[in-house]
Amino acid sequence: MQFSIKSGNPDKQKTGCVILGVFESKKLSPAASLFDEATDGLLSDILRRGDMNGEFGQTLIMHSPAGAACERVLLAGCGKESEFSPKRYCELNARAACVINESGARDAASYLPELEVKDRDSYWKVRQSVECTLHALYRTGKQKSRQKKESRPLKKMILALSDTDSPKEAETALKDGQAIAKGVSLARELGNLPANICTPGYLAKEARALGRKYKSVSVTVHDEAAMKKMGMGSLLSVARGSREPAKLISIKHSGGKKSDKPVVLVGKGVTFDSGGISIKPSAAMDEMKFDMCGAASVLGTLKTCAELDLPINVTGVIPATENLPDGNASKPGDIVTSMSGQTIEILNTDAEGRLILCDALTYCERFKPKVVVDIATLTGACVIALGGNAAGLLGNDDELVKDLLEAGQYSGDRAWQLPLWDDYQSQLDSNFADMANIGGREAGTITAACFLSRFTKDYKWAHLDIAGVAWKGGKEKGGTGRPVSLLSQYLLDQCR
Ligand code: BES
Ligand code: MN
Ligand code: ZN
């Protein structure tokens, strides 16, 4: 898909489809008004006849509008002007992309970026138009033996700006939006792959491929023997139950000065989580192939960094393993020693994410990080608390937490803070080891973060629990690519 920026009247655009916004009730956007004048009142006629009233989500395509140079015009309902929000702007772009993709038009000129969006500038609008269009047009399903071919897919899109907007900012927005969309697509695709293909070794290969593709990226992969040498008894205890060898992947984007401390992103890479000996119920267990979405978001974000050649150092760390039951698997009550030296009583083998993350977090100390952010599909409790709208966010540094919250707000990939108070720490007390790996039914997302906090005392750290946002179930089952947008925004904010 090719994007470009252009200004000029909508009726003059020689294109497969012009996209125009209409507000409720029957109020034309400025670009739609211009188009209406040029076509002798075509749009006002339609509104008057009641084919459409501008309600949010309505769409209407007309062919060969007399007086205009385009083949089609798509009217997109924007709802009440007073209720037009950043979120609605994004949904509108996605919907328009879907409708046009089905229409037969090969190219389009969207006037949606001309719409006023409260508290958002033209950079944001152009970037979101790109991200939302590409998100809507993403198709998975390489595993289907018969690929459904789209007969005439959308190939080119012009984003129209009014003369008052800065073209330079818009060009930056195009570039940023496309790079973020590439990162998001990579994360979605990896998430969607089945666990028999997307193994720990596959994630390592994927990281190495990024290292080959981008000059700024280098990759190191540690095998189980190396992890054993480093004392990663907790991570390895999870891998014991699986025949797929675990990997510890580290992937570095060097865009900053050599002396710049890196931002370190740690992604949970459990390529399948059966629960282990504390086995999960079988309903929807297939969705536990998505338990590596933290890892996928780290690889996606690194791809975005490399595409933009961001002037910053970013290191991704991915502990990757399966969690399966086996004769050799960890049993409830087993005690293991983490790389930090702290001992852990494994009361539930299904709380495996924290067991692999804790060693990865200790490993991070060697990078002398500026900050560390871990990203993990860590607790079902987070799905109960926040649902699919916001990731859970906890951390030991207020400024870092605030920066991440703001990046989420701006990008639309939102997070919500939960308290990491000491009051919850005692839930992890064990009679036999330094700590237990579970903290009981109450506040499950917080006690999971409390567990991790015991391994992150040496640096500024935040934890994103993405269990609710990383994928969708049901009819729309599939990876979302979250939180690549949030993380990319955070990194952009660090550079600019
Ligand atoms: N990967 C799961 C968390 C999860 C569950 C994400 C459902 C999305 C949907 C994690 O490894 C897990 O099993 N967590 C347990 C922890 C419990 C045993 C303390 C959970 O949330 O049930
Ligand atoms: Mn689990
Ligand atoms: Zn898990």
List keywords for this structure.
496 residues; alpha/beta; Leucine Aminopeptidase, subunit E, domain 1; Aminopeptidase; nine-stranded mixed β-sheet; seven-stranded mixed β-sheet; 14 helices; 35% helix; elongated; binds ligand BES; binds manganese (II) ion; binds zinc ion
Mean pLDDT: 97
| Class by alpha and beta content | alpha/beta
- Give the % helix: 25-40%
CATH architecture of the largest domain: 3-Layer(aba) Sandwich
Number of helices: 14
- Give the CA-based shape: elongated
- Measured distance between first and last alpha carbons: 27 Å
CATH fold description of the largest domain = Aminopeptidase
In the CATH scheme, the class of the largest domain would be Alpha Beta
Fourth CATH level, the homologous superfamily of the largest domain: Zn peptidases
Largest sheet: 9 strands, mixed
What are the low-pLDDT stretches, counting only 5+ consecutive residues below 50? none
- C-alpha-based Rg, rounded: 24 Å
β content, as a range?
15-25%
Count the E strands: 21
How many discrete structural domains?
2
